[in-house]
Design brief:
Number of strands: 12
Strand content: 25-35%
Order of helices and strands: HEHHEEHHHHEEEEEHEHEEHEH
Structural class: alpha+beta
Largest sheet: 5 strands, antiparallel
Length: 316
């Protein structure tokens, strides 16, 4: 949502010539503090936006009011359309907005901007899977975020226990094809998996959001907490160095090489939520991987091996 808001702020400045943070806040339905941060972000990004202090001041683009986006350089316009282009495939409204944005550019920039918009596409469907559609629930929640309205949720937790929640929707995140809602509750900030929301209804009650809230920072905090949970159990293993990239692909950021051991194999630290999670990932490697510690992972591997031997014993 921040990228969309920055573009909207820029277009507003182009149409009015000079704006105040309060005017941007009213037009885009955000707080004054958020509007001021967005204006400062545009300036920090190299777009010729500058403040004018004093009576009758505000924020302006170099050169004053314009009817096009000539405040952008050619490279800045291309960067903007590389960002916006893939999103245009989502809906007809996005495509229409992109066409209008192209027409707002100087003639000399349009060809490169259109090429940039078409240079990238995003196909989130994995090989062999049917085309995925964005859940309708996401559209409902997104509308509530934009309109700043509270939402009444029926939510099902891990144990499939349902509860009613009245939340302030702050933002939505798509992570690896799973949507998450970050919202304010009576107990503070919470994260809800959208696929576990049974029902949702937008209310007429205004939603509250902290002035210093940013979706990127909030999600970074969520990811940090989640990764801590995903790395509660660490194990030390030995593996032939040529297979290290495969092991790294399995465990990602929870795979750290500690150099070569005396026998020439790579000594690696890996992590997962539980000893069983590590054992399940390593069981298929057989003797290609040797677990040095902890004993809990060794025990889980031995148990899995015993079960498989008992199930698939062959007669000679």
């Amino acid at each position: 949502m921040r990228a969309d808001r920055l573009v909207a702020t820029l277009l507003l400045m182009q149409s009015r010539g000079r704006v105040t943070a309060a005017e941007v806040a009213e037009e885009l339905e955000v707080s004054v503090a958020t509007a001021r941060r967005d204006l400062e972000a545009l300036s920090a990004a190299g777009i010729p936006v500058y403040p004018q202090p004093g009576r009758g001041g505000g924020w302006s683009l170099v050169g004053g009011a314009r009817t096009d986006l000539s405040g952008l350089s050619s490279t800045e316009a291309q960067a903007l359309f590389l960002l916006v282009g893939p999103a245009a495939a989502v809906s007809g409204e996005a495509k229409a907005a992109l066409r209008k944005l192209v027409r707002a550019l100087p003639q000399t920039f349009r060809a490169d901007a259109e090429a940039a918009a078409d240079a990238t596409m995003i196909d989130s469907t994995r090989w062999g899977e049917n085309t995925r559609r964005r859940p309708e629930m996401v559209d409902l929640l997104q509308a509530a975020v934009v309109r700043r309205k509270k939402v009444q949720l029926t939510y099902s937790n891990n144990a499939r226990q349902q509860s009613e929640r009245l939340v302030d929707p702050w933002g939505l995140v798509d992570k690896d094809d799973i949507w998450y809602l970050i919202a304010g509750t009576e107990k503070g900030q919470r994260t809800f998996r959208v696929d576990r929301i049974v029902t949702a209804a937008q209310t007429d009650e205004p939603a509250e959001r902290p002035d210093d809230f940013t979706l990127a920072a909030a999600w970074e905090e969520v990811v940090g907490e989640m990764e801590q949970r995903r790395s509660r159990t660490w194990a030390t293993v030995l593996i032939d160095g040529r297979y290290l990239p495969i092991l790294n692909d399995h465990f990602g950021r929870h795979c750290h090489s500690e150099g070569r051991s005396d026998d020439g194999r790579e000594q690696v630290r890996i992590a997962a939520p539980t000893p069983l999670d590590i054992a399940r990932n390593l069981a298929g490697w057989g003797t290609m991987v040797e677990v040095l510690d902890p004993p809990t992972v060794q025990a889980e591997l031995a148990r899995i091996g015993t079960e498989l031997a008992g199930r698939y014993v062959t007669e000679t």
